Records
---
Amino acid sequence: MNYLSYYFVAINVINFFLFTIDKQKAKRKQWRIPESLLFLTSLVGGSLGGILSMNIMKHKTRKTSFKVGMPILMIVNFLCYLYLSKLL
């Protein structure tokens, strides 16, 4: 595996846990992780981890911005990965 693959695995694991932590905080009515951070982490490569956590934890699944935005970001992430893997 190359560094690009390690990066994508790491950012997806991080984003999975960010979504999971946000769900736990929501249940306890605690301070939440900003949606902008969840989207930013998804934008920079973590969309698959976000989608997996959304579906496993049943979190943010009713919000249109996440239902529509996360699959779009996953396509963008995949295309960026393909492009960057050809360059490196």
---
Amino acid sequence: MSRKRDYYEILGVERSVTEDDLKKAYRKLAVKFHPDKNPDDNSAEAKFKEVGEAYEVLSDASKRAAYDRYGHAAFQGGMGGGGGGGGFHDPFEVFREVFSGGGGGGIFEQFFGGGGGGVDSSGRQRGSDLRYDLQISLEEAARGCEKEIEIRKLDACDPCGGSGAQKGSKAVACPTCRGRGQVVVSRGFFQVAQTCPACHGTGRIIEKPCHSCQGEGRVEKTSRVKIKIPAGIDSESRLRSTGGGEAGLRGGGSGDLYVVIHIKEHEVFTRNGMDLNCEVPIPFTTAALGGEIRVPTLNGAVSLKIPAGTQGGSTFRIRGLGMPALQGTAKGDILTYVQVEVPTRLDGGQREVLQKFAELCGEENNPIHKSFYDRVKSFFK
């Protein structure tokens, strides 16, 4: 059996490393060896799992203290592999808190209220919360829809039913601490009580750990989850699927799944709350003479009357055809910004007609032009 590498060596840090520097070192290596960046590279995948195992232990104060005193022996025996070796993952845009970390103030906890809970007296622990980033179209956001997502996560182990124990086996008092959850360690003239490295403070270990899950009560599986997206939802909104996160340790409660919505950029509309903005080009003849144009909406085109003499940049509001309110029956508007389109090519006949038109108009029919030059005429002296 090959010798396990030192966890500090794996992460490339000193034994006196601070929590923040430890986190930075882990993130850097996790990104470097992530399977998505190293497809079909078994060695990178192995290093990714090794880095995850090292960080799981060293990011937990009690586990780190046990490791500093006993080394890898601290996690052998009673825990059935719970002290490291499962690795960490973030496939399909699913992330644990700070790529997990044992429920201690990670990135995910700061934004979503925390991951796994503490271990109870029987060794059960609530599973971690998960995040999934889902992209939808503006039309889907306006009408509401149902999406089915697929994620890889730790789910209840079938052979042991999530208990972590073989059939007929049970949890017994930890022989290392005799069920107390703590061991007394001599340090010179002093004796200090610290968390038992064998049972991690629970006072109990599994007599015969399940072979499939190594005593954790959970294994990695692909799961499908249906998410209902309400009409009117906006980008960065989050939807909570209670119990959709990771299964708990040894039969503990499941965490929650948080789905963060991202709305794709639309080809025509930009969103401003419940209102939709769009720019519509019109011929300069329509702007001058007036007329009717077709304006797009999320439910098909509608007619819009353009009054004679409309200037470029004018805004027309089409009421009630914007985004719906997330709650209630109100709807936003469509704000149509008119762009007056000037012909780029004129033949001889068209040019002659326009020149006559310009002569007939004079300055009186161009009040904006006249007003501007009245204000700046001093610059031309």
---
Amino acid sequence: MAETRRSFLKKAAVVGTVAAAGSIAATASTGEASYSSNGVVVGKSPKKEILYKKTKAWDDFYRTAL
């Protein structure tokens, strides 16, 4: 019984490793950095992340929150 568990775990580890390597290869093949629409840069970019933009909505929120 312990041998069957051990062989199952070995097979599962091999299948998981192959699947992970395949998904990494698939995502790396695109070669493009993706950008989100809210101003935060995603990928290998030297640009500074913009986490906050001063808007009327944020001013209203801060006035009511404090």
---
Amino acid sequence: MVLRKKIPTSVVVPGHPDYELLTSIAGEIDRKAGGRATLASEMPLMLRDCIDALINTPRTGRRDFNELEKVEKTFIGTHVEIVVRRFLRLEKGLLDTVILGHDVDIKFTTGDNWTIPPEAYNHPCLIIAADEERSLCYMGLIVIRPGVMHGGAGNRDAKRGISAEGFEHILWLLCDHPYPPNFWRTVDSATVERITATRSGNERVSALFEEVQGRPISRDVIDATARQKDFTRRTRADNGRGARDKLLEQGILLLTGTTHPALIAALGLPFCRRGEYISYTPKDDAEWAIAAQHGIIRP
């Protein structure tokens, strides 16, 4: 399921009854996040991590959100609430949190709407969504009132979603915003099987970087693949036993955005964030010469 393929233009502009309240809360969220740009950069990654931790492909063999059990999908909403509150350094309140003295509910969905409880009525709500199919994410603010909900002023005892007209009353912080796909969905099933079938952590991490080259891979993917406490050790040389030395013996470079940003750029590889890894087989002597300039000698 996807949220909405066409999000209506927000009517939360000067003159709207909730404009002052929602813009002040939005400003506080931006401030807590370190700016809108930081929010836009970090929020998609946090959502991806929350979902991937439950999918956990290397242990479960599952590659898709839809393969999760119903109780697991329910837990993700709570997990996102906790992670967002921690990221924004927010206190717990009568609802999920308090922002500028206002009790605020936090709701998350991977479907086409949010499930809003009666106790959230007449309060601001921070609504968050991840669209797994289109790799988009959303974050907005809305004051929950009967008029923006399905069923109008009907039964307040039942949880309901936001109506089509209600979507117009959302002040968006992130809308149709890029959201990274689940890593394992981008890798064909035969490759996943080759990576996860090996027995030791070193072998699985080495297989990961042999099979998936030229693209950044996060620490979380490596952690899930290694299935060991000191998973970063698998990416180091480790006196010839780690993945880096074993890969180099095969002519494969294992680089990190923390240690090798200049070499990654010199080889024309995709940008790697700090803590991300990328493997690559140099194509010719010229590329090996570039690696040598950065301290990596061809075996």
